[in-house]
Design brief:
- The protein is 48% helix and 14% strand.
- The protein is of the alpha+beta class.
- A 4-stranded antiparallel beta sheet has the order 1-2-4-3, with helices on one face.
- The longest helix has 20 residues.
- The structure holds zinc ion.
- Zinc ion binds next to loops.
- The site of zinc ion has 9 residues, from loops.
C-alpha cells in the first residue's frame, strides 16, 4: 500500500518549532548584515542560501516536479504546494499576468518576517530566502526564469511578495 502524489509529499515533511526556526533565521540574517558591505550583497547571499536550501529540499522530488506541470503558469501550483508543505500556510494571493509570464505570490503573514521590524536598511529583502528556493525549483524544472522579492513586511510593507518571471 502506498500513498502517492501530493499527500505523500505533505506527509513526508517533518516539522520543526517555529520559534526555533525564526530565531535561527534572524541570527543568520544578523551574520549576513555584519559580514556584508551593502544591502544588495545581503540580498544576494540570502537568495544563494535559499537556492541551496531549495536544492536540498527538492533533491528527492526531482522526478515528481518534472511531471507535476507542463507550463510556467501551471508550475506556480507546484510552488504553492511547496510553500504550504514547508511553511504550514498558504499564500494570501497568487497573481498571474495576462500573458502568463509573470506570477506574484503574496503572504500577509510571512513566517520569516513575523515580529521583525527593520527601518534603517531600505532595500533589504528580509525573506529573500524564499526567492532562492523558488529559483532552485524553477532551475530544477528547466524554466528560464528569475525569482525575486518585491515587497517585505519586515521592512514595513503590508505583505511579502515574491515574483517569478520568465526570461526571453
Ligand atoms: Zn516576509
Amino acid at each position: 500500500m502506498g500513498v502517492r502524489g501530493k499527500l505523500a509529499w505533505a506527509l513526508k515533511i517533518d516539522k520543526v518549532s517555529k520559534p526555533i526556526f525564526q530565531a535561527t533565521y534572524r541570527e543568520l540574517m544578523n551574520i549576513l548584515i555584519q559580514t556584508s558591505d551593502n544591502v544588495e550583497e545581503i540580498n544576494q547571499k540570502m537568495k544563494d542560501i535559499g537556492f541551496k536550501v531549495g536544492e536540498d529540499l527538492l533533491m528527492e522530488y526531482t522526478e515528481k516536479i518534472r511531471k507535476h506541470a507542463s507550463t510556467f503558469v501551471e508550475f506556480s501550483s507546484t510552488l504553492q504546494l511547496a510553500y504550504k508543505v514547508n511553511s504550514g500556510q498558504e499564500f494570501t494571493d497568487v497573481w498571474v499576468s495576462d500573458d502568463g509570464r509573470v506570477v506574484k505570490f503574496t503572504d500577509d503573514h510571512c513566517v520569516l518576517c513575523e515580529g521583525v521590524e527593520i527601518r534603517d536598511m531600505p532595500g533589504l529583502q528580509y525573506c529573500n530566502l524564499v526567492s532562492g528556493v523558488f529559483q532552485a525549483v524553477m532551475d530544477l524544472r528547466g524554466f528560464n526564469a528569475e525569482a525575486y522579492q518585491e515587497s517585505c513586511r519586515a521592512l514595513g510593507d503590508s505583505t511579502c511578495t515574491w515574483t517569478i518571471r520568465l526570461r526571453d
